[in-house]
Amino acid sequence: MKINSLAKLGGVVLVTGLILAGCGSKSSQSKKQEINWSTPAAISTMDTSKMIDLYSAQVANGTNEGLLRMAKNNKANPGVAKSYSVSKDGLTWTFNLRHSKWNNGDPVTAKDFVFSWQRTVKPKTASQYAYIFANIKNAAKINAGKMSPSKLGVKAEGNYKFVVTLNKAQSYFKYMVTQPEFFPQNSKTVSKYGNDYATNSTKNSYNGPFILKGWNGTNDTWKLVKNTKYWNAKDVKVKTINFQAVKTPSTGLNSFNSNKLDYTTLSGTLAANNKKNKAYTVFPQASTSYLEFNQKKIKALRNVNIRKAMALAIDKKQMVNKVMQGGDITPKGFVPASMAKHNGKDFASQAYVKAGTDYDLKEAKALFAKGLKQEGKKSLSLSLLGSDDDDSKRSSEFIQSQLEKLPGLKITVQSIPFKSKLSRSESQQFDLVTSAWIADYPDPSNFLDLMTSNNSYNDGKWSNKQYDALIKKSESTDANNETARWNDMVAAEKILMQDQGIVPLYQQGQAALVRSSVKGVQAFTTSPQYDFSKAYVK
Amino acid sequence: MAKYLGKRIFYIILTLFIVTTITFFLMKLMPGTPLTNQAKLTPTQIHQIYKQYGLDKPVWQQYLVYLGGVIHGNFGTSFQFSNQPVSYLISSRLGPSLIIGGQGMVLGVLAGLIVGAVGAIKANTWVDTSATIISILFISIPSFVLAVLLQYYLGLKLRLFPIADWGGFMYTVLPTLALAASPLAETARFMRTEMVDVLSSDYIELAKAKGLNKVGIIYHHALRNSLIPVVTIIGPLAVNIMTGSMVVENIFSIPGIGEQFVKSILTNDYPTIMGLTIVYSAMLCVVLLITDIVYGLIDPRIRINK
């Protein structure tokens, strides 16, 4: 998903876990099992069919549960489903559900999943994320209004067996079902409240570790309270999590320092000033900012030496430490680090190509001179398109100053509103543009698909036959063989970096302060970002 | 009086009608839709979403439907908060804004009158100079800077008041102080200038000559006469408070409409922007009406029923 650094509204999905490292210092607070958490935005809806933002998804992940539950180290642990099996061709997924309950006492059954998924896909619900169901049999046709929702490739065999039929094998489907869009819904509650369903904390049913309380639909504070009817309630230690929407980072910092909050996010100089704080933590996000070359419009940008020279001329370390200042991380490639793992190995490390993200001005000058000669040019004048928020402007100016160190290269910066930037990128009205992408699910394909020749988000129109073939193979012949598929994707990313189809600028990271007494909160690089089901106060 | 009020209320309604119309068409000219993932939505779905928000009809029909809704207090459904009526969004968040805005206004104006009057009475002494310095400081420091300073020193360092959040009188103190600063300074400057003039006028000299005591002169003659011009700036001050509260609410995490206004603009939530614009205009009209009525009460020469 394209992201706006201002709003970061977005993600559907996500993943990789790491446990918040607590430094074990003694806390002055009592050991009451209560956590005070902050979030940058209020809940926009609790209807999982309509959820489009990360912060609502974070709350939903606490109050509800899908077939599987995202856990640390890229695992999809049992959730409502105690086990599942996949057919040999990878098309049929059968989930065996446990006997669990909604907070109102109703049993959670396979019918609740059928109901919920059909509701999200049918056009009348107008879910803006229905496309995420596209790989489920008939979903696209139903969504286009050409078929009845009852034809969706899902069925309940009895109350506790749920069977899904896919269009094509998709090994990461297990991650998708951990996401709020795939949660069950209590049909009685939905029909009881109609249009008002999930517009406040009482007009909803919960089957997750916590129950939402005190949300009136528009306020900035609410609570997650332990759900005693949750199937694994015995493992939920924390009794209450008080949420507060804090819209100004300095307010969050003051509240943290006066012990009113146990977690607060930091940005810019506030992050830089607090790097030595014991509570300072960076949470990597499955999001990369990168530079695209318009190869369709500018012929010189089709020259690989020129692209490589420009990549090598940008000092990414300096960009992260001196320009962006927040929690951002130097990139390892296009696919973010700590997002996807296979056999314990991180994708970004396996596919790492030093030259693709390195800084070497001397080499850059040599390559640029060579490239210009090949193109029969003495100089090159390009414009750099970026959006007009502070972060983007700073980053554009930095890139300009770095690139202009190449003799003969002149860069002009254009900063325009985010939405206009987006539409100009999509219609190739730029020379160079800074873009950002956040993963919808923790699978490298989420990024790699973007760079295939025909993808609508491949703004620069970089095209490589070998790359396209590898991606295609990973989706067809190798789709059902995790290792082969993984190797295809690693090879593809290496080609992208060696050919410098794009220049990764930085991987986004969330800088935050976290109270050391709060343990066991699991963090993921994508939505829902945090999981509190194993959290406790020590 | 009744006739005057009737006339004024008619003009208020006319003003609101014009504001609604202009805002409505301006919003139609802006890019942006309730769609977040347009590229990935099917045409049927886009149609459904438009239909849900009434955007499938021609603009003139949308306008009539909107006007009809506004008359009944229905501002449509928010793009940002799924299925949440804008009227509920506003009504559930209006209270905190009115409380801090009202308190800020009352405190600012009253304190400003006192500071200004004292400055005038002790004109050209150190008291006057200090009063002027306070005014200049409060006018030059933007409310968001003051808010952050108050939060840091009174909230975090001295722990006298809560740093942020909402829940009782103590939570309103810092935002009220931050908002009161600018009306205080404005009122004080006006009051001082007026009062210095009034104090040197003939009728004050006469009162002095008649042997009235100083307190009596100031209270009965000087203060009341100086108030007249001051009342005129209350309207602009109210606007000041409204715009100031957008930032102040953000800093103190107050669940108010100012904060909501900013967010609705950032997220292209047009129904909310329109609803809030109308509510803000209505509040401003009411403040202006009250100002005019108060004007007549203070100055007997102004007969509002004429």
TrEMBL record, chain A:
<dbReference type="InterPro" id="IPR039424">
    <property type="entry name" value="SBP_5"/>
</dbReference>
<keyword id="KW-0732">Signal</keyword>
<keyword id="KW-0653">Protein transport</keyword>
<keyword id="KW-0813">Transport</keyword>
<feature type="domain" description="Solute-binding protein family 5">
    <location>
        <begin position="77"/>
        <end position="458"/>
    </location>
</feature>
<protein>
    <submittedName>
        <fullName>ABC transporter periplasmic protein</fullName>
    </submittedName>
</protein>
<dbReference type="GO" id="GO:0030288">
    <property type="term" value="C:outer membrane-bounded periplasmic space"/>
</dbReference>
<keyword id="KW-0571">Peptide transport</keyword>
<dbReference type="GO" id="GO:1904680">
    <property type="term" value="F:peptide transmembrane transporter activity"/>
</dbReference>
<dbReference type="GO" id="GO:0015833">
    <property type="term" value="P:peptide transport"/>
</dbReference>
<dbReference type="Pfam" id="PF00496">
    <property type="entry name" value="SBP_bac_5"/>
</dbReference>
<dbReference type="GO" id="GO:0043190">
    <property type="term" value="C:ATP-binding cassette (ABC) transporter complex"/>
</dbReference>
<dbReference type="InterPro" id="IPR000914">
    <property type="entry name" value="SBP_5_dom"/>
</dbReference>
<dbReference type="InterPro" id="IPR030678">
    <property type="entry name" value="Peptide/Ni-bd"/>
</dbReference>
<comment type="similarity">
    <text>Belongs to the bacterial solute-binding protein 5 family.</text>
</comment>
Automatic annotation (TrEMBL), chain B:
<dbReference type="InterPro" id="IPR035906">
    <property type="entry name" value="MetI-like_sf"/>
</dbReference>
<feature type="transmembrane region" description="Helical">
    <location>
        <begin position="227"/>
        <end position="252"/>
    </location>
</feature>
<dbReference type="Pfam" id="PF00528">
    <property type="entry name" value="BPD_transp_1"/>
</dbReference>
<dbReference type="InterPro" id="IPR045621">
    <property type="entry name" value="BPD_transp_1_N"/>
</dbReference>
<feature type="transmembrane region" description="Helical">
    <location>
        <begin position="9"/>
        <end position="27"/>
    </location>
</feature>
<keyword id="KW-0472">Membrane</keyword>
<keyword id="KW-0813">Transport</keyword>
<dbReference type="GO" id="GO:0005886">
    <property type="term" value="C:plasma membrane"/>
</dbReference>
<protein>
    <submittedName>
        <fullName>ABC transporter</fullName>
    </submittedName>
</protein>
<keyword id="KW-1133">Transmembrane helix</keyword>
<keyword id="KW-1003">Cell membrane</keyword>
<keyword id="KW-0812">Transmembrane</keyword>
<dbReference type="InterPro" id="IPR000515">
    <property type="entry name" value="MetI-like"/>
</dbReference>
<feature type="transmembrane region" description="Helical">
    <location>
        <begin position="272"/>
        <end position="298"/>
    </location>
</feature>
<comment type="similarity">
    <text>Belongs to the binding-protein-dependent transport system permease family.</text>
</comment>
<feature type="transmembrane region" description="Helical">
    <location>
        <begin position="166"/>
        <end position="185"/>
    </location>
</feature>
<feature type="transmembrane region" description="Helical">
    <location>
        <begin position="98"/>
        <end position="121"/>
    </location>
</feature>
<dbReference type="Pfam" id="PF19300">
    <property type="entry name" value="BPD_transp_1_N"/>
</dbReference>
<feature type="transmembrane region" description="Helical">
    <location>
        <begin position="133"/>
        <end position="154"/>
    </location>
</feature>
<dbReference type="GO" id="GO:0055085">
    <property type="term" value="P:transmembrane transport"/>
</dbReference>
<feature type="domain" description="ABC transmembrane type-1">
    <location>
        <begin position="94"/>
        <end position="295"/>
    </location>
</feature>
